[in-house]
Design brief:
Among the domains are: about 20-35 and about 50-215 and about 235-245, Rossmann fold (3-Layer(aba) Sandwich), CATH 3.40.50; about 470-615, GMP Synthetase, Chain A, domain 3. It has a five-stranded mixed β-sheet, with helices on both faces. Strands 2-1-10-9 form a four-stranded mixed β-sheet, with helices on both faces. Strands 4-3-5-6 form a four-stranded parallel β-sheet, with helices on both faces. The protein has 19 helices and 27 strands.
C-alpha cells in the first residue's frame, strides 16, 4: 500500500484529470489513508469519516450494484440527509455512468411540504431510480403514497450495498462530453429547471475554483452548505476531493439552529477555507455572543468565500469588526459570483486581497449607468465579485438590443467558456434562448444569458441585481434589494435579510408591495408584555383587508408605519401595501435567495402567513 507523503507535490494543477471519477481514483491510489471527509453530528461531535481509498471502494460498490440493472444514462434521484452517504451515492452514480439528480428529501413530519417540487423534478428528469438511506427507504410509502407517478421508480438503500461488489465495477469510460449531473436550479425567479452538467463542465469549474482559491493539499475546509445545491456540491464537497485536502461537514439545520457551530468547527479543525451566502455572515453577527467569541480562534481562516446572493459591504465590515478579536482578518473575505447554469463558479477575486468596493451614484445606476458618487450624494455601495478565471469570458450586453454595452453601462451578464452547461434537460427551446445567445452587433457567441444585471470596471464584475426582479414604478427603475435594505433598517423588529419588495398591477398601474418578517425575540417580548400576535398560520385570505386593522396589536401598526416612512424618505416611493409575516415564512431558495415571484403570488392569492396586513380597502 502506498503511504501518502504530504511533501510530495501532487497538486491538481499538475494533473490532467478528465473526470471526477479519474480524480478520486488517482487520490485513492496516491493518498489512500488520508481522511477526506468528516461529518459532525449535531454540528459538534465527529460521528463518521472516510478516507480516499474507502470512498473509492464505496463508490465502486454502489456503481456495480447500479450497473446490474440500469444502463448508463439512466437518471437517479438522490434523497439523503446531510452526510457522507450522499457523497458516496453521488460518486457511485458517476462511477456507473448514471446521471445524478440531487433533490431535497421531503420532511417525514410534513410530507406535503416540498412534495410538489420533488415530484416536478422526478417527472421532468424521467428518473427511474431513487437512491437513499435505509432509514428513509423505510418511510418512503408515507412520503410518496399519494403520488402515483412515482410508484414505478426503483429504490435502493445505498448504505446496505456490500463493499464486496467493488471488484465487479466496470468503468463506463465517461468522457468530458458525458452528462454527469442534472442540477435543478433553486428557483429564485421561476420553476426549477434541470441544468445539464457534463464531466467536462465539472473539471473546468474545479480547475477555476482550484486556481482562484489557491487550493492545495495543505488546505482544510469546513462546510454546512446543503450538498444537493450547486454551491454545496461543486464548490465545497467536490473541490477537496479534486485538490486533495480534508474537509469537515455538518448539516445546514445544525448551523441555522446555532450559527456558532460553524465557527467552532473552523476554530477546532484550524480550517483555512469556508464560506456561504451573505446571510450566513449576518446570522453570525446577530447570534454569536461575546462569550462564544472569546473561545474562538479564527486566525487560520484565510478564505471566507461569499456568494449565491448579493454581497453587502456592511456585512463585510460588521463581521470583520465583530470577529477581529478572535483572529479573523477582513482580507479573508472572498466575494464571488456563480450560478448553476455555469456549473457554479464564474468570477472571484485575488485571495488575501481586500475586496474592491465602489460607491455608485444611485440615480445613474437606476438609469443603467455606473458613475462614481460625489461626496454626500445619494449612493449605493457595491462589492466587486472579482474577475473571470482561465478560459471563462464575461460580457455585459443590453438585454433588449442584444448589443455589447460600452464601459460604465449596466446590462445583462453573459458568460462563455468550458464551464457553461449544456442546457435545461428536456427544454430545447428555452435552452436555445438561454445557452446559445449571440450578440447582435458582433455576432459573438454562443453565450449563456444569466438574467443578472451588472457592469465591468477594471476587469472586475459588479452585480447590481436580477433583470426579472427590477421594479418599475411611475416610469422609474428601482432595485428591490435597495428598498429591502431600507426596510430592514427601518425598525428593530424586522429580521435582517428577510424582506421582499415587488410591484403588482392594480387598475393598470404598478404599485409597490413590501413583505417583512418579524423577529421571534421581538414577538416573545411583546407577548410577555401582554400583547400577542394573532396566529394566522392556517388562514387563507379571501378578501382584501381594510387599511388599518383596529383589532391588530398597536405595535404591528407602528412597524408598518415605520416601514412606510423609511421607504418614502429614502426612495420617495409610496408603498401600496405592507404585510408583516412570521419568522422563516418568506420563501427562499436553498441558498438563501428571496423568491420574490412566490412572495408576489402569495400576496395576490392572499395566502401569506400574515401577522398584520396594511393595505387600502378595495374600491
Amino acid at each position: 500500500m502506498v503511504v501518502w507523503n504530504p511533501n510530495v507535490n501532487r497538486s491538481a494543477s499538475n494533473l490532467d484529470f478528465q473526470t471526477i471519477v479519474g480524480a478520486l481514483r488517482w487520490r485513492a491510489e496516491n493518498q489512500p489513508d488520508q481522511v477526506l471527509y468528516r461529518f459532525l453530528e449535531d454540528g459538534e461531535v465527529e460521528s463518521s469519516s472516510i478516507t480516499f481509498e474507502r470512498l473509492d471502494s464505496a463508490a465502486r460498490s454502489i456503481a456495480a450494484s447500479l450497473q446490474l440493472s440500469s444502463p448508463a444514462g439512466t437518471r437517479a434521484l438522490l434523497l439523503y440527509p446531510a452526510g457522507i452517504d450522499f457523497i458516496a451515492a453521488f460518486l457511485g452514480c458517476l462511477y456507473a455512468g448514471i446521471i445524478a439528480v440531487p433533490v431535497y428529501p421531503p420532511n417525514p413530519q410534513r410530507p406535503d411540504r416540498g412534495l410538489g417540487k420533488f415530484t416536478a423534478i422526478a417527472l421532468n428528469s424521467g428518473a427511474t431510480l431513487a437512491l437513499t438511506t435505509s432509514d428513509l427507504l423505510a418511510i418512503k410509502d408515507k412520503l410518496f403514497s399519494r403520488v402515483p407517478d412515482l410508484h414505478a421508480i426503483e429504490w435502493l438503500a445505498t448504505d446496505r450495498v456490500s463493499e464486496d461488489l467493488a471488484s465487479q465495477w466496470k468503468d463506463p469510460n465517461a468522457t468530458s462530453e458525458t452528462v454527469a449531473l442534472l442540477q435543478y436550479t433553486s428557483g429564485s425567479t421561476g420553476n426549477p429547471k434541470g441544468v445539464t452538467v457534463t464531466h467536462g463542465n465539472f473539471i473546468d469549474n474545479q480547475n477555476m475554483i482550484h486556481k482562484s482559491f489557491q487550493s492545495s493539499e495543505q488546505c482544510i475546509g469546513v462546510s454546512w452548505l446543503p450538498m444537493y445545491h450547486d454551491m454545496g456540491l461543486i464548490g465545497t464537497t467536490l473541490q477537496p476531493l479534486f485538490a486533495g485536502y480534508p474537509f469537515v461537514l455538518m448539516s445546514p439545520v445544525d448551523f441555522l439552529q446555532r450559527p456558532v457551530r460553524w465557527l467552532n468547527a473552523i476554530s477546532q479543525y484550524r480550517a483555512t477555507t469556508s464560506g456561504g451566502p451573505n446571510f450566513a455572515y449576518d446570522l453570525c453577527v446577530r447570534k454569536v455572543t461575546p462569550e462564544q467569541i472569546s473561545a474562538l480562534d479564527l486566525s487560520s481562516w484565510v478564505l471566507a468565500f461569499n456568494g449565491a446572493e448579493p454581497v453587502r459591504s456592511e456585512t463585510i465590515e460588521v463581521f470583520s469588526e465583530k470577529f477581529a478579536p478572535c483572529g479573523f482578518k477582513r482580507e479573508a473575505f472572498y466575494p464571488c459570483y456563480g450560478l448553476a447554469e455555469a456549473t457554479l463558479f464564474v468570477t472571484g477575486g485575488i485571495k488575501q486581497e481586500v475586496p474592491t468596493v465602489v460607491n455608485a451614484d444611485a440615480a445613474a445606476l437606476l438609469n443603467h449607468r455606473f458613475v462614481e458618487a460625489e461626496p454626500d450624494s445619494p449612493a449605493r455601495t457595491l462589492v466587486s465579485c472579482g474577475r473571470p478565471w482561465l478560459a471563462q469570458r464575461v460580457l455585459i450586453v443590453d438585454p433588449d438590443t442584444l448589443c455589447t454595452c460600452p464601459p460604465g453601462q449596466v446590462g445583462e451578464i453573459w458568460i462563455s467558456g468550458p464551464s457553461k452547461a449544456q442546457g435545461y434537460w428536456g427544454q430545447a427551446e428555452l435552452s436555445e434562448e438561454i445557452f446559445q445567445a449571440y450578440t447582435a452587433d458582433t455576432c459573438d457567441g454562443p453565450f449563456l444569458r444569466t438574467g443578472d444585471l451588472g457592469f465591468l470596471r477594471n476587469g472586475e464584475l459588479f452585480v447590481t441585481g436580477r433583470r426579472k426582479d427590477l421594479v418599475i414604478v411611475h416610469g422609474q427603475n428601482h432595485y428591490p434589494q435597495d428598498i429591502e435594505r431600507t426596510i430592514e433598517h427601518g425598525h428593530p423588529a424586522i429580521r435582517f435579510g428577510c424582506s421582499a419588495v415587488f410591484s403588482v398591477s392594480i387598475n393598470r398601474e404598478e404599485r409597490l408591495v413590501a413583505i417583512a418578517e418579524v423577529e421571534r425575540t421581538y414577538q416573545r417580548a411583546r407577548e410577555s408584555a401582554g400583547t400577542e400576535y394573532s396566529d394566522s398560520s392556517s388562514t387563507q385570505y379571501d378578501t382584501v383587508p381594510v387599511s388599518v386593522d383596529t383589532e391588530a396589536p398597536k405595535t404591528l401598526q407602528e412597524i408598518a408605519a415605520a416601514i412606510r416612512r423609511e421607504v418614502a424618505a429614502e426612495h420617495e416611493l409610496p408603498l401600496h401595501a405592507v404585510v408583516l409575516v412570521k419568522a422563516t415564512t418568506i420563501p427562499k431558495t436553498s441558498s438563501g435567495k428571496i423568491q420574490r415571484h412566490l412572495c408576489s403570488s402569495g400576496y395576490q392569492q392572499k395566502s401569506l402567513t400574515a401577522l398584520y396586513w396594511d393595505e387600502p380597502a378595495a374600491t
